[in-house]
Specification:
The complex is a heterodimer.
Chain A (H helix, E strand, L loop, with lengths): L8 H27 L3 E3 L3 E6 L3 H4 L6 E10 L3 E9 H12 L10 H26 L9 E6 H13 L4 E11 L5 E8 L1 H15 L1
Antiparallel strand pairs in A: 1-6, 2-6, 3-4, 3-5, 4-7, 6-7
Chain B lengths: L3 E3 L5 E4 L4 E7 L3 E7 L4 E7 L15 H14 L8 E6 L14 H15 L3 E7 L5 E6 L5 E5 L4 E3 L1
Parallel strand pairs in B: 1-3, 6-7
Antiparallel strand pairs in B: 2-5, 3-8, 4-5, 4-6, 8-9, 9-10
Helix pairs in contact in B: 1-2
Classes of the chains: A alpha+beta, B alpha+beta.
Chain lengths: ~210, ~160
């Protein structure tokens, strides 16, 4: 990515991680209230990756996940996803809809519930980071799908890939303390957005 | 079943048996699969976007330049154009609601790949494209068969 020189890489990744950390913390709190479980966030990791490697970095394109995706289309441009692995999506939907869940045959209500959970998480993520950098964020209506991870990532990567060959992927995973439930947030900012975030975060730190 | 090479986004691979080529989790991406049955030489390009801009680094990222490059690579490895045929997989519409910036990118990819193959005078023997489901592709170079899987088990050989 052209804006990053080698020496600055680590520092920039650190700032972006901190930014995402605050968003993810807020989103995990919302999710935790919604589902009535105690969630814990892992350390945010942030990596500069070629397009081909993003799915591998997240554990391989062939795993089946439930992903909710939205795209910021205001001043800041970034793809944001919340991703639940298969088992967690089943337990989440089972908990919310009190029904037996088969991910291959989701009803409209179950799909809608999945979309809404994603929506709530992503909006809390955005509210927190938006307050921090004092910029309004305008997300597109989110959409959810259950499919291969590679396929879920295609649309966000295609959006970014039109301009660049490497992306910055910001990944925060969360897991429940008392039962088997985990997932992660993924932010894929555009280069111009990264500059704005760095600028604002710099002011914030001073 | 060893020697599986995974072809990632914007990557291109040409190979011979006993190796196998795969693209895992194709959504709106399209895999253009070429095969020369006499040499048992096969190639895949995993394309992300339809049309290449004037300045670009990765040919394999775009349907038009990627397909052309794959044809060139196949010929460089000894394939004869008249024998080579193509199969297309992918190009699904993953998120219908969030298509503000990019309209149905999957369909554009398919159309552009078809056009590029037509321009290179290569026949398309089979397609497993469009729809709303992601696909994984396994290409066995020994038999020339392409196995297409979708999430939750449905399988088809083309």
């Amino acid at each position: 990515m052209s804006i990053l020189t080698k020496d600055e890489d680590l520092k920039v990744l650190g700032i972006i991680s901190e930014f995402a950390n605050i968003g993810a913390g807020s989103a995990a709190t919302a999710l935790s209230h919604l589902l009535d479980v105690d969630l814990m966030n892992d350390v945010t990791t942030c990596e500069i990756l070629p397009l081909a490697k993003v799915a591998d970095w997240l554990g391989g394109g062939n795993q089946i996940v439930a992903g909710t995706y939205t795209y910021l289309c205001g001043e800041l441009k970034s793809g944001i996803l919340v991703v639940f692995p298969q088992d967690s999506a089943v337990s989440l939907l089972g908990h919310l809809t009190k029904a037996d869940i088969s991910l291959s045959k989701l009803t409209e209500l179950q799909k809608s519930a999945l979309r809404e959970v994603g929506n709530i998480c992503l909006c809390w993520y955005l509210i927190a980071v938006s307050k921090m950098v004092d910029i309004d964020m305008i997300p597109a209506p989110p959409d959810a799908t259950v499919d291969y991870l590679g396929a879920v990532l295609n649309v966000p990567l295609a959006t970014l890939g039109a301009k660049v060959d490497t992306v910055i992927a910001v990944h925060t995973s969360f897991k429940a303390l008392d039962r088997q439930f985990d997932g992660y947030f993924l932010m894929l900012p555009e280069a111009s957005t990264l500059n704005i975030i760095l600028e604002r975060m710099g002011e914030h730190c001073r | 079943m060893n020697d599986l090479t995974v072809v990632g986004i914007a990557q291109l691979a040409v190979s011979r048996p006993p190796s196998r080529l795969a693209c895992l989790g194709l959504g709106s991406c399209v895999a253009v699969i070429l095969y020369d049955p006499v040499l048992k030489l096969g190639g895949i390009v995993h394309i992300l976007l339809p049309k290449a801009p004037n300045h670009h680094d990765l040919d394999a990222k775009y349907a038009d330049t990627g397909t052309k490059k794959l044809v060139e690579e196949m010929i460089k490895h000894g394939a004869t154009k008249a024998r080579v045929f193509a199969r297309l997989v992918g190009g699904a519409e993953m998120f219908t609601a969030v298509n503000l910036a990019i309209s149905n990118i999957g369909r554009e990819n398919i159309l552009e790949a078809r056009k590029a193959l037509h321009d290179s005078s290569i026949r398309i023997m089979a397609e497993e494209t469009a729809g709303k489901k992601g696909r994984s592709v396994y290409f066995d170079l020994e038999t020339g068969k392409v196995l297409v899987q979708t999430a939750f088990g449905s399988e088809r050989v083309i």
